[in-house]
Design brief:
The chain is about 70% helix and about 0% strand. With about 200 residues, it is mostly helical. The protein folds into two domains: about 50 residues, Orthogonal Bundle (Arc Repressor Mutant, subunit A); about 130 residues, Tetracycline Repressor, domain 2, CATH 1.10.357.10. The radius of gyration is 20 Å and the shape is elongated.
Length: about 200
């Protein structure tokens, strides 16, 4: 594709889109600005107008991932649910569905090279995601979910359960050994156990 086919803003989006395709095909390590320029038919210097380094590109991809997650969670957060537990349960399931459908973005979000050297824009997106989750967890606690935990512990509990499930279900070794063919149903069942929609009263009450 000729470089003249890209307007200034179009090239940035094209670089991110092609990088995500490469990550999905072969992993983060194969992404380079020079290779992306070659794939897109632009000069090898053209990507530097948008991303000075490979790390900057990967951080932008990770920030896009969190933006997508925030949007998906925000749509659910704005809906009416019977309880805060229902909302937390729904957002947990939406997170895992996003992971299953966006493996490349998820790989970037959790990649150690990105987490070790996150730029300010990525940190802002992660903070926005945590802030949204904080509100949902608070509502769930108000409705009796993990009410014996401090708010901070409940928040970490909610996040680590979802991210732990995502890691397990997307890890090829775990997936093969555990035969996770019905991963969505299994994930839903596990989240229903972690965040039950209805509280069970202790015996004798």
């Amino acid at each position: 594709m000729a470089s003249s086919s890209y307007h200034h803003k179009d090239l940035r989006a094209a670089l991110i889109a092609r990088a995500v395709e490469l990550i999905d095909e072969s992993g983060v390590s194969d992404v380079s600005l020079r290779a992306l320029a070659r794939d897109l038919g632009v000069s090898h210097n053209a990507p530097s107008r948008h991303f000075k380094t490979r790390q900057a590109l990967l951080c932008a991809i990770a920030a896009k991932g969190y933006s997508d997650l925030i949007y998906a969670a925000s749509v659910l957060d704005a809906q009416d649910f019977p309880t805060g537990r229902h909302k937390l349960n729904a957002i947990g399931k939406a997170f895992l569905m996003w992971v299953f459908e966006n493996r490349a973005l998820y790989r970037v979000i959790i990649h150690p090279d990105i987490t070790r050297a996150a730029d300010e824009a990525l940190k802002v997106k992660l903070s926005e995601f945590i802030a949204l989750m904080s509100g949902v967890v608070q509502q769930a606690q108000n409705d009796g979910w993990q009410s014996g935990l401090s708010f901070e512990a409940a928040l970490i509990f909610a996040i680590t359960n979802s991210t732990g499930l995502a890691f397990t279900f997307t890890n090829p070794l775990y997936r093969d050994i555990l035969s996770l063919d019905e991963r969505r149903q299994i994930a839903d069942d596990i989240l229903d156990a972690i965040v039950p929609l209805y509280l069970v009263a202790p015996l004798g009450d």
